[in-house]
Amino acid sequence: MSEATPSPAAPAVAKPPAKRRISLALQGGGTHGAFTWGVLERLLEDERLEVDGLSGTSAGAINGVMLVEGLLEGGPAAAIAALDRFWRSIAGKLAVSPLQATPMEKLVWGHDLTWSVAYRTFDTLSRVLSPYQINPFPYSYNPLRDALVDSIDFERLRSEAKAPRLFVSATSVRTGKPRVFTRRELTVDALLASACLPQVFKAVEIDGEPYWDGGYLGNPALWPLYDQGGPPDIVLIQLNPTVREEAPTTASDIVNRLNEITFNGSLMAEMRAIDFVQRLLDTGRLEQPRYRRLFLHLIEDEDRMRKFKLSTKFNGDWDFLSTLRQYGREAADAWLAEHFDKLGRESSVDIRARFL
């Protein structure tokens, strides 16, 4: 009886490479958050990445919540669609806002609203009257509320056990301390509080406590991302420029620069603390795992973003939002091409040179 011919060995199937887990830190900045939209869209398209957690403030918080909402709906593709729906909704609501420029003003000044009649009127009123004087009624209209209620299933967001970690920052008016809402605490009011500019909106009350924009004390807060575990890689998406070579001379430019410095202040302080701990780890004066090694990364486009005036943070024109979205996509694409291989190994931004 002839010996059976052995069957050929089955071809080896290569295991897919492990995804790189990252945490995202998302700055606030009004409608400039469309830049972050573009960044997130590009990162979600990259199948090598997995988002473990997000910390955001104002527009950054909203972008983060929309991303998680989409992931719960159906993964990265659904998250991309959720972000797109939200920003289209905002553009539609702001299109009928009296604050937007007229067609003639757009033709003359482009995206800048600084000299539009509506914006100048709003800017002047906000300097002499508070939202409580302009609107004495108990409740005031906020276009964000309807957009958020229509876009987010808050009950599912709070209850889903396998969703990414999520942290939203607000500022307590009474104590002057930061308040970080976890995913299980999130409500539409928590998001509105995180985006509550006190010159524009009345303080948002949650459990009897009034809150203002989280950017004053955490833009965004980084500590929840490393204090509560998660991967060592934190990717910061920055909207507010840190450097301007020329000193501002006009009233609007001075206010704009003060705004940028204020909303970068807490980030600078936290970066200083992180750098200090990392240097102590380098010299062996602190030991892991009690103190963690962190790898910091930065996605930004200061050269383009610093050209936009403060007024453009209120501009909801679809063409402007689409431009910012494209800038964000390009910035993320450049970062992925240059720094992806550093994830899990080293920081891709020099903290001391950039923030200290």
Describe it.
The chain is of the alpha/beta class and about 350 residues long. The protein is about 45% helix and about 15% strand. It contains 14 helices and eight strands. Strands 1, 2, 3, 4, 5, 6, 7 and 8 form an eight-stranded mixed β-sheet that branches. A hairpin with a 2-residue loop joins strand 5 (about 205) and strand 6 (about 210-215). Helix 1 (about 35-45) packs antiparallel against helix 3, helix 1 (about 35-45) packs across helix 13 and helix 2 packs across helix 3. It is globular. The N and C termini lie far apart (about 80 Å).
Q: What overall form do the CA principal axes indicate? A: globular
Question: Could you tell me the mean pLDDT?
Answer: 91
Structural class: alpha/beta
* β-sheet strand percentage: 5-15%
| Helix content range | 40-55%
Largest beta-sheet characterization: 8 strands, mixed
- Give the termini distance in whole angstroms: 82 Å
Q: What is the gyration radius calculated from CA atoms?
A: 22 Å
Number of strands: 8
- Helix and strand sequence: EHEHHHHHHHEEHEEHEHEHHH
Low-confidence stretches: none
Number of helices: 14
A few lines on this structure:
This protein is of the alpha/beta class and 356 residues long.
Per-chain topology:
Elements: E1 20-26, H1 33-45, E2 49-57, H2 59-74, H3 76-95, H4 103-109, H5 117-128, H6 131-134, H7 143-151, H8 154-159, E3 165-172, E4 178-182, H9 188-194, E5 204-206, E6 209-213, H10 223-227, E7 233-237, H11 251-282, E8 295-299, H12 302-305, H13 318-339, H14 351-355
Parallel strand pairs: 1-2, 1-7, 2-3, 7-8
Antiparallel strand pairs: 3-4, 3-6, 5-6
Helix pairs in contact: 1-2, 1-3, 1-13, 2-3, 3-7
